[in-house]
Amino acid sequence: MEENIVPFKEEYINSAVHLFTNNYQKAQAENGLLPHRVMDEPEWIIDALKTKVNNPGVAVFQQGKFVAYMITGYHFTFKGQKTASIPEYCHGSIEENKKHLYHRMYMELAGFWIKSNIHLHIIGHLSYDRALKEILFELGFGAILKEQLKELSSIPGVPEIEIIEEKNVENLLPVAIEHNHYYTKSPIFIRKNTDRDNVLDDLRKHAARGDAILVYYENKKPCAYFIVGESEDKEGEGFLLRKTNTAQIRSAYAVPACRGKGIGKALLQYAINRAKKHGYERLFVEHESANYYGGTFWNRHFVPYLYVSMRYIDNTITSSPSTPQDL
Hints:
Layout: E1 3-7, H1 13-30, H2 37-40, H3 42-50, E2 57-62, E3 65-71, E4 74-78, E5 81-86, E6 91-93, H4 98-115, E7 120-126, H5 130-138, E8 142-150, E9 164-165, H6 173-182, H7 196-209, E10 212-218, E11 221-230, E12 246-254, H8 263-277, E13 282-288, H9 292-301, E14 303-312
């Protein structure tokens, strides 16, 4: 079969959005909590791709037909390395020969990234697509994040525990600092700023944005909390939920002594009740896949719709002579 892999151009955007929308519809058929905005407002995804069209990307044609695409979304530094990421809407393919298509597209882009000394590669992918998950595994990717959804039904067996909507964010400071320290420990190993002023500034930003800070106190000390607000209208986590009437659990933590007592359930039920009161349709949370304690809780109550996977490349390699195209 005649096959051409070419640099992605703006004229391919509509075809790319058509592929992504087809894949999103399959995801929605599996997870009815996913909103309809992708189908109802395709110009939203078109506009998002237009902002990436000058980034390195490829399109694949077979017998002259557009069959797959992959576009670099962002460049940034993560875990001390230059990073390239591909958001979930920046790639797609037909089902036939999907494994071949993804291998070839990644081969092209990864070769270009290495020439630019970018050794950490990240891709977001819809959870329904188990074949793609296997393809990425074969390419050396492993999970780092999960994005999950929950409907707003009540949770059974919630204990009667008092939850406070805290207005004075300084009261939350000790447990919030402990939370940031938690991420540096095994097996997560993600560095977060634990400076007092920085953590306090972050809490104040949540309050200024109108986020609710839900806290459980024990012996007058904050022991567990949720920070809940609307999923923001910007790119990044929860992109597919923007402007879809979705509430987000932005941050959550319980000190070790408070775990396993139903406090998380009580906080989640409070968040559900608040979301219903404010007219939201669903709850969203993003969390590290290596977060054992947090992940165990979220997996019990939420359903995944998106995974984010990552691959490290030997950073002593600075060129890719086998890559046939210079993007």
